[in-house]
Amino acid sequence: MTDPAIPDLAITGGRVVDPGRGVDDPLSVAITGGRFTAPGDAGQAAETIDASGLVLVPGLVDLHTHLYHGVSHYGIDPDANCLRRGVTTAVDAGSAGAQTFPGFRRFVIEGAQTRIFAFLHVAVQGMITNLVGELEDLRWASPAQAIGRAREHPDVIVGVKVRLGYQMVGNDPEPALRLARQASEQLGLPLMVHIIDMRKPISWLLSQLGEGDIVTHCFHASEGGILAPDGRLDPAAARARARGIVFDVGHGAGSFAYRVARTAIAQGFPPDTVSSDLHAHNVAGPVYDQATTLSKLVHCGMSLAEVIRATTCAPASAIRRAGELGSLAPGSAADLTGFEFRTGERALPDGAGDTEVVAALAVPRLVVRAGQAHHLDPVTPGPEPPAGS
Q1: Structural domains in the chain plus CATH codes
Q2: Statement: the pTM of the whole predicted model exceeds 0.85
Q3: Which residues lie across from 339 on neighbouring strands?
Q4: Does the pLDDT at position 389 exceed 50?
Q5: Degrees (nearest 5) of the Cα angle 86, 297, 159?
Q6: Is the alpha carbon torsion for 383, 304, 76, 372 positive or negative?
Q7: What is the pLDDT of residues 16-49, one digit of tens each?
């Protein structure tokens, strides 16, 4: 019989960084019954992992992904591209709508080792094709069906999603926003809004959002962004943050620009959350994975603690799972990511056509999901820069 006083798993020798709790120390981590116990000297355990040389952080939470593979043209396999790349919790950002969500839950969410939550698209079909914008015809939108489906799946559905680019809703984004807002308000859940290529200024949108709502793709370089033509931060963005609106990276294929990120961060406007917007059209670059996205934000001026906070406790709070996820606190779910930080220049593209040489990369080498450890092979994205560059 196993001694209940002996942890199931101890991880020793690593540097523990848990910004939500103000922890940055060489500590051991102990896990029993899929939950963290008090950090410190783990002592004897049923299994021990030597994490020397690794930075141990709460399991990464990626707030914006697309995982409905086989149905959405964006969909990718969650375990290969999230869990095996250091992400323990992935949030799908609107791949499914009310009529396609049951299949998403049954065939993807329930079969994945990665923990998956979802923002439900206000369009009943979700994001299944790039042939037609999902709300070019507003008859596809049904707040009533979104509300009903979200109430059926409160353990998984964490908010409502709408994309306001002209390719998805036409030149006037207001009717689509109004319908999505109706669903999120009645549910009492946050609304996530895709802002790239929106035909109205960002100040218009921000005036329509409330505390806890999420602006994703906040560092894009297309029209409708947070920077004025002279590079100064739009005052409406600062006011919105003060009201509790969340600004999320959502890197994507074309939604992140080094120059915008660096300029905003230099003006005291880092993102609240860092997410990848990982999908089938960017997993081979420019995004690659969440860890590479984090490395790019450090390159743009964020500290390690800021970046870890923005992919652990901050997104956990955004989906109202604070205390359960995004922390190494005793009693929280035993999700953990162990990074090796590799120096050595890599040429990494953003989503706006620019490539910059990044000097250090976060490379996931260990992931623990609900107390189950997985050792990861190192994956280093992007080519080495040409000699003399």
Answers
A1: 9-57+330-375 (2.30.40.10), 60-318 (3.20.20.140)
A2: yes
A3: 55, 364
A4: yes
A5: 65
A6: positive
A7: 999 999 999 999 999 999 999 976 666 789 999 9
